[in-house]
Amino acid sequence: MTFNRAYCQQAVCSPSRSSLLTGTRPDTTKVWDLQTHFRKALPDVVTLPQDFKQNGYFVQGFGKIYHGGLDDPQSWSIPLTRAMSGGQYALKENAAITKRRAEESRQQRTQGEGTYSSKLGPAFECADVPDNTYQDGRIADLAITALREIAKKNQPFWLGIGLLKPHLPFVAPKKYWDLYDPAKIALAPNPFPPKGAPTYAVELTGGELRTYAGIPAVGPIPDDLARQLKHGYYAAISYTDTLLGHVLDELDRLGLADNTIIVLWGDNGWKLGEHAGWTKHTNMENDTRIPLLISVPGMKTAGQKTDSLVELVDVYPTLTELCALPLLKHLEGTSLVPILHDSKATVSPVALSQYPRNQKGKQLMGYSMCTDRYRFTVWVDRKDHSMIDAIELYDHQVDPQENLSIAKDPANAGLVKLLMAQWTKSWHGMKPPMAQE
Question: Residue 42 above 90 pLDDT?
């Protein structure tokens, strides 16, 4: 089943992954940046892979599961494998990854202020090399090898395969670039900030992208360069799509597909010039909406799509229910099993995301609520949520790209009041019933 309206809890790597893997939201993990480990606030929390390990599963991970440098040894039966690979192209990529992590951490500390001038390597690369030259190809190969060993043991398993792409830099073998005609790649239809929104709603500096060589430090991205970046993004997606196909083919060949649940997910969305922005780091639809597909052996709804609102924090309770494990008390998401049985079912009337901003000395948090029709975001002081700095309201029925915030229109005062009441109720906790130790 494809979940058309799935949302992350915060549109940046570590907070999003920490939420999915602990089953709790950023305000519980206290992870809003790329430096903080969730075990600082939750030293005894049982993570998703750890839960399966404690219930007799062999648990192994490859690549990027937790954010780089923030692994969780308790989660694994054997240590996580990063799969850094050799070769001139891969070494270049690995060096860029290491430097990027340091730069991302610096950006997080200065989010919303200043420009970034530190330069990594190129933002994209098209090289005529085998798939396993780059890190993701190596990760897929290692996952296939692991599946072969697992098949010999006849033991239940939980395998985490953390492909990095389409994260920057957009490196993929040439054959994947050749799938696309750059002349037919359209530029973003809305290359301007959302009207009526606070200036900080979209992080316009594009700091993460600006750290790569060949990218202007400030100002707009030229059209030709924008097309190259989108071309690289598309190539990276096709590359990872193919690698995933190889893993699934091996799952079939080994006879494991008939009793293996598969979850495909991404930790955040991405802007490619929309709202004059690049990368993620906002509460906007482009950044909070994420890919989510779940395949369960024997499911009667296989191949269907659903428009029900769901969140990444729902994945943990979904898997525990599907595998008949106890539902732990700390989980803050809701099982998606009812939707897997009926694509028209709903488990929540809203999806919640958030993002912090340091804005001219103000420490703000934007709490965003997506309903069937609206996105409603309230920016508050991080320490005193009664101090409201700004409100955004987008009507997805007439403005799916979120180009115009209508919160300030006097004609919408009644609607804002209703949504504020729903927003307040939603952000005061949405925990599933009947959780048990």
Answer: yes
